[in-house]
Amino acid sequence: MKDCPRFKVLATFLLILTALMFLIGAPQAASGPDAFRFVVFADSRGNWTPGQEINTAALNYLNNQIVNLNPKPDLVFFLGDMVTMAYDANQKRLLPDWKKLMTDAGFSFAGLEPGKIPLYVAIGNHELYDYQGNYLASLEGEYQYFFSEMPGNGPAAYNKLAYSVGFGNSLFIVLDTFGFMDGNRNWDNGIDELQYWWFYATALQSQAKHKFVLTHGPAYSTEGWPVGNLPVRDLLWQAMKALHFDLYLCGHEHLFARWRPDGSLTQIISGSAGATPDDKIKNPLIKSKYPIFAAWDYIFTVVDVQGDFVTAQTYAARPQPSPTYTVKVDPLVPEGSYLMLFEP
Q: Which of 51, 170, 259, 295 is most exposed, with the fewest beta carbons within 10 Å of its own?
């Protein structure tokens, strides 16, 4: 990473501020065993045609597969791009429609409704578009309003956008990769210094055996798209390694991709819960020293935590054309086992 005096001064200031102000709250308490299951999926947006801003058919199909897993998941994370735009040409807000689809399927936002599966969300870039495709900073506030159930234990500037959740023997840290900064720019801005230092302090004080970062945007693009704020990304990645994080989980790119970008930590993109899967001819995987294992379909990823071990299975699901199907995918795993083991 290149030397950046301004960044070092700001980083030092933020570290001191973090210590003095104790910006972090305790991770949200949740009772759970040391053996549990969680699911990650993302990107259920449809297209720009009125009435098609959510791919309802695909999302409903995946939701049905997830709530009927055996064993059922103990919690679920949806990592952004729920809708194509925040509102349509008639000013109709679309996030409430998405929320109804999820609650009707059997999810409860932040677990506030007993008897349903707790669901946590991360903001994507499409939640910040108007119907003409413009980014609007005001839509960040609308997102915070519509998802007021999310924990409020993150940095104040990222209320409901960056937060932590504790479950069983694990810590989950959700971060915002599309925050507005530098004159309200918003395109792959990445994680800024404020989020990084809050993340670092939260992870450092945690006694959790397993730790996960969840965002909309990948830390490393598998298709060569820009990833913003690389100095902070590099700090985050190094801190995750030093603090023994298990996985970086994300969406944004419309495929399944499992990759150890530097040969160490694993990043899993589980990025199409209705958004049209990327064309692997038009968007080929980048050339990498370390192999990228990928599949192109509608996707959800199931992660099982059992004591010291974390295993993950990714499923490709297709609601149409008939017949429908849901199959396990991971090219690395021998056929018939479909088990991916992560070292503790």
A: 51
Q: CA–CA separation, 127 vs 83, rounded Å?
A: 6
Do 337 and 311 contact (CB within 8 A), yes or no?
no
Supply φ then ψ for residue 215, to 5 degrees.
-145, 170
* Residue found under tokens 């694993």: 266
SS3 311: strand
The CATH code for residues 5-342 is: 3.60.21.10
* Domain residue limits, the chain: 5-342
What does the block give as tokens for 235? Answer: 């700090």
Chain centroid offset of residue 77 CA: 7
Residues 118-129 have pLDDT tens digits of: 999 999 999 999
Where helices occur in the chain by DSSP H, the ranges are 5-21, 56-67, 95-105, 138-146, 193-205, 230-242
Partners of 313 in beta bridges:
302
- Rounded to whole angstroms, how far apart are CA atoms 95 and 80? 11
DSSP 257: E
User: Which pLDDT belongs to residue 331?
Assistant: 45
The pair of three-digit structure tokens given for residue 112, joined into one six-digit string: 């506030």
DSSP-assigned letter for residue 48: S
Q: DSSP string spanning 138-195?
A: HHHHHHHHHTTTS---S-GGGTTTSEEEEETTEEEEE--SS--BTTTB-SS----HHH
Tokens linked to 259: 């990759």
CA proximity to 255, closest of 273, 242, 241: 273
- Phi, psi torsion values for 185, nearest 5 degrees: -65, 145
Judge contact between 213 and 239, C-beta under 8 A. Answer: no
At 320, the amino acid letter reads Q
Residue of 196, 272, 194 whose CA lies nearest to 234: 196
pTM higher than the cut 0.90: no
Give residue-wise pLDDT tens across range 72-107.
999 999 999 999 999 999 999 999 999 999 999 999
Sign of torsion over alpha carbons 178, 184, 189, 195: negative
